Hints:
By secondary structure, the chain is of the alpha+beta class. It has two domains: 157 residues, Four Helix Bundle (Hemerythrin (Met), subunit A); 276 residues, paralog of FGE (formylglycine-generating enzyme) (Alpha-Beta Complex), CATH 3.90.1580.10. Helix content is 32%, strand content 12%. The strands form five sheets. It has a four-stranded mixed β-sheet. The protein has a three-stranded antiparallel β-sheet with strand order 1-4-14, covered by helices on one side. Strands 5-6-7 form a three-stranded antiparallel β-sheet, with no helix packed on it.
Amino acid sequence: MQTSLQIEGLIKEFMDVRNKTLELFSPLDIEDAVMQSSDFGSPPNWHIAHVTWFFHKILEKYSKSYNSYDDDYNLSYLNSYYQKYGSILKKSDRGRYPRPTVMQTIKYRKEIEKLFVDFIKLTTNDTKDYSDELTLDIYTAFNHERQHQELMIYDFQYYYNRFLDDSDNYVPRKSISPFVMEHVPKEMIRIDGGLFLLGYNGEEFCYDNELPENKVYLNNYKIDNRLVTNREFIEFIEAGGYQNYRYWLADGWEMVLSENWNSPLYWVLDKDNNKWNKKDFRGTREIRMDEPVVNLSYYEADAFCKWAKKRLPTEAEWEKAASWDSNSNSKTIYPWGNTPMTNEHANLLDSYIWHPTEAGCYPKGKSHYGCYQMMGDVWEWTSSEYVLYPGFQSRFEEYTDKWAVNQKVLRGGSFATPNEQIRNSYRNYFKPHERILFSGFRCAADT
């Protein structure tokens, strides 16, 4: 049974999620809201309609009286990849069908929000078994929308990078979160191996792909206490890293040749001054040397590691470095422990900084081993294939299970990840050639 206080908390969290999405969406002009910047992105209008459709499907699951919107809003356009819901619009075609219109989408969002709040009030006092399933579905929908908040931000940067005028850029909310930096020297931290329990062990919501905890054996290893910076990556570029096939996996080298890669995504070389520039949410500016390198593919991170005579960590190595507290002989939910996250711990979306902060920031958020910025700033590539853990059981069909092939695991979140979304065990996954996400890395090595 849900208490009235729990129901009020559920409704508040629902509205907080919904309002944050519209806050991200609201700076857009109508023309920008319906444009699809690439085959691998989506129009912002589609994002905010699709996450509403997701809540709508949960309403339909529990009551057939909520299925009367399809004809009015052309909702067949909004199915992303769920076979159980029928026809699916090809992702690359989402920009060809700017329907529902932006005004229809806003109206649809408001109507579903009202229905959903009324539904929560009426149904969450039902039997415990029913309530458990419903609660899981609701929290999956909350986190699904948070994922789309971050995906929208990827699309914003990619879209506005098509325009040379700095004034033609996404104008985000200003930061209200000053950050603290320590001038910490870079070093590799030794971590003892042995059996390690990989996966989520807390009491709150998590995705089914974080479960169950499973034993893995780790050899002794070392891991960088800081993320790889732009300065370090420029050294790789200047050493001919993009011209030497010896550093690259075969598929990665094919990408270098076919796509003419010579630097991370969005970088442009000012040949007159021999400086790298980049347009991001701050406008066009010279690359800041001590910020973590970002918008890299797995192939580029792997090539750098090979050049540096190191390697990427496995996801289990990353998770142990982020979560293991040898004093208590236990794992923690966050790198700093189990205390709730604040903007003093990490650079995530709720900080509204809109770019990675310099390496060595957020000393309050460092891990028990002394690793900085394992949460926030940039998603960190690992060498691990995205596979489901032994004993995996799907809790929301077609959500995480169908993607467990040909993808690499990333950990830790980025400056665009909502605070409520991230924890040490959270597993992101992308194809190894993808660079639109805010991805970087730290190196590991065998002892």
